[in-house]
Design goal:
Elements (H helix, E strand, L loop, with lengths): L1 H14 L5 E3 L2 E14 L16 E11 L4 E12 L8 E12 L2 E9 L30 H4 L1 E12 L5 E10 L7 H7 L5 E7 L2 E9 L5 E18 L1 H15 L12 H12 L16 E21 L2 E16 L1 H16 L3 H6 L5 H7 L2 H10 L5 E15 L4 E11 L8 H9 L1 H10 L4 H8 L7 E12 L4 E12 L21 E12 L1
Antiparallel strand pairs: 1-2, 2-3, 2-18, 3-4, 4-5, 5-6, 6-7, 7-8, 8-10, 9-11, 10-11, 11-12, 12-13, 13-14, 14-15, 15-16, 16-17, 17-18
């Protein structure tokens, strides 16, 4: 892979002599960047930044042509490496046909850039901004594979408004994509409960309005996105049966006793095998039982963004506010069907014998396994209904002093729950969940103390504050070098699972930490 990157740099350097390539009426542009991230503590953006990471790169090539005065075609292929996201896989970033009928009405079809905030459509064009990282309180980098484009149709245009200026508008309908190994997929798998996640997105629509005010250089806008998804993931069958088995045992009048939750499942299996006098086909270990598939459903994901930007000569000031409301819940009907199917294989040959012992029938057991019981069991494992009301904002200022030097600064905040900015309620809920959550820890052969240290997240995992100072150097018209320092407070936008205590990092995450970033970009 490193060899491929080196050859790409040589190739693009050669192409750069012409700045913009045109071949047979097709304009060709491209970029390649390599960055470095080093944090004083904590791991950030799915990379091991506490050790210093070069897993921070982008490359892309786009092609465009004007078939007629009103019909435009464009396509971009793209790859990135961001910690364990992307891994340099080449993807179709966007590809669409654009019919510009009138200034006030145009049509697009295909995979279209998603207008969300001021800079989402241009977030991969490093040469257009001062900073290395967009403010993460609004533009979360790990979500890029989902929020960068929508596959469908859209309309757009500019409507003149006389002395009020003009309004740019756009609206799209279609589907966004959630990559199984992308940022959202990693968040799901980082829980440690779900593995091999697969996502199917629901109907998505987006609208955006930008007011070009009569004040020169001032524009104000807003955007809205609504979507949803189904996430199918593997759950080891033993996990769910561990959470159910105490209720099952109690349902038989205490004739099967379960003294210790850690040993519950294997003890019950051994008891069943003994009662069945060696009936074949009875699993003797959780490892012998196949995992089940469960579906998590999010019917409504709503993203609101309010934006303002003022440009005066070489000075640019911007501010944006972002709100993300997300609800995720297990599909109990589908889950019960999966559980009963697995139970058929595991217990059907045993329960007729148990009935002879007066311990109830197999149908009695199946009747106990209700949707309510399953939802309660999953809530015990931290996979109950999840309602997020995430909020973030930033303000930024940048100034170009010379043709080759630009200085920028921004301040950004992000919160997991807008009503819990300090993270106190979040941390308290983690502690309150401990009496049930420790059962899962025991199943994993962890002590209570290990689970509490490793998995009760501190309050600072619920918020994030960042002051960033950026220096940009334009070496020439092709090469840009940037240096950036971040003073961070909190860890909301970082993956919690990568910042828990380990043998090599006993303290785990810290609340106050710094990060240095460097990035070189070649574009043509």
């Amino acid at each position: 892979m490193k060899k491929h990157i080196f050859l790409t740099i040589i190739f693009l350097s050669y192409l750069g002599n012409a700045w913009a390539i045109e071949f047979g009426g097709v304009d060709i542009h491209g970029f390649i960047s390599q960055g470095y991230l080093k944090s004083t503590s904590n791991n950030y953006l799915n990379a091991k930044t506490s050790e210093g990471s070069y897993d921070f790169s982008e490359r892309g090539v786009n092609f465009s042509t004007e078939l007629t005065d009103t019909l435009h075609l464009g396509i971009q292929i793209y790859g990135r490496d961001l910690g364990d996201i992307g891994n340099d896989d080449i993807v179709l970033d966007w590809a669409f046909a654009d019919y510009h009928w009138k200034d006030w009405l145009g049509f697009r079809v295909g995979r279209i850039r998603l207008p969300m905030g001021l800079y989402n459509e241009t977030r991969d064009m490093d040469m257009l901004r001062t900073n290395i990282l967009l403010p993460q309180g609004v533009y979360q980098e790990t979500w890029r594979d989902t929020t960068s484009a929508i596959t469908g149709v859209g309309i757009y245009g500019e409507i003149p408004a006389g002395f009020l200026g003009s309004f740019d508008y756009s609206a799209q309908v279609g589907r966004v994509s959630i990559e199984d190994d992308g940022g959202i997929g990693k968040i799901m798998e980082d829980t440690g409960i779900l593995v091999d996640s697969h996502f199917d997105t629901h109907h998505t629509w987006n609208t955006s309005v930008l007011w070009n005010t009569p004040v020169p250089g001032l524009r104000i806008g807003g955007s809205f996105v609504e979507s949803g998804f189904d996430a199918t993931a593997e759950l080891p069958f033993g996990d769910i049966r561990t959470a159910m088995v105490q209720e099952i045992a109690n349902s038989f009048g205490g004739l099967i006793t379960v003294p210790d939750y850690m040993d519950t499942v294997n003890e019950l299996l051994e008891a069943l095998e003994q009662l069945a006098f060696g009936v074949s086909g009875v699993p003797t270990s959780l490892d012998d039982i196949d995992p089940i598939n469960m579906v998590l459903t999010s019917e409504n994901i709503n993203i609101y963004t309010l934006s303002a930007e003022f440009t005066f000569g070489n000075l640019t000031i911007a501010a944006e506010y972002d709100r993300k409301r997300i609800n995720i819940q297990p599909n109990a009907t589908q889950l019960r069907s999966e559980v009963l199917f697995e139970m058929d294989e595991a217990f059907e040959s045993v329960y007729p014998v148990l009935g002879a012992w007066g311990l109830g029938s197999y149908n009695d057991l199946k009747n106990i396994v209700t949707e309510e019981l399953l939802l309660e069991a999953f809530a015990d494992m931290g996979v109950g209904n999840l309602n997020l009301d995430m909020a973030g904002y930033y303000w930024s200022i940048s100034y170009r002093f010379t043709d080759w030097f630009e200085l920028g600064f921004y301040y950004t905040q992000g919160h997991q729950d807008d009503g819990d900015k300090g993270g106190g309620t979040f941390h308290e809920s983690e502690i309150q969940a401990w009496p049930e959550a420790h059962k899962v820890a025991q199943m994993l052969d962890w002590t209570d103390e290990e689970y509490e240290d490793y998995h009760i997240q501190p309050a600072h995992h619920a918020y994030y504050k960042d002051k960033a100072l950026s220096l940009r150097f334009d070496v020439n018209e092709y090469w840009t070098l940037k240096l950036e320092h971040h003073w961070n407070y909190g860890l909301f936008v970082a993956p919690a699972v990568k910042n828990m205590p380990t043998d090599d990092n006993i303290e785990g995450s810290v609340e106050r930490w710094n990060m240095f970033a460097a990035k070189a970009t070649f574009n043509f």
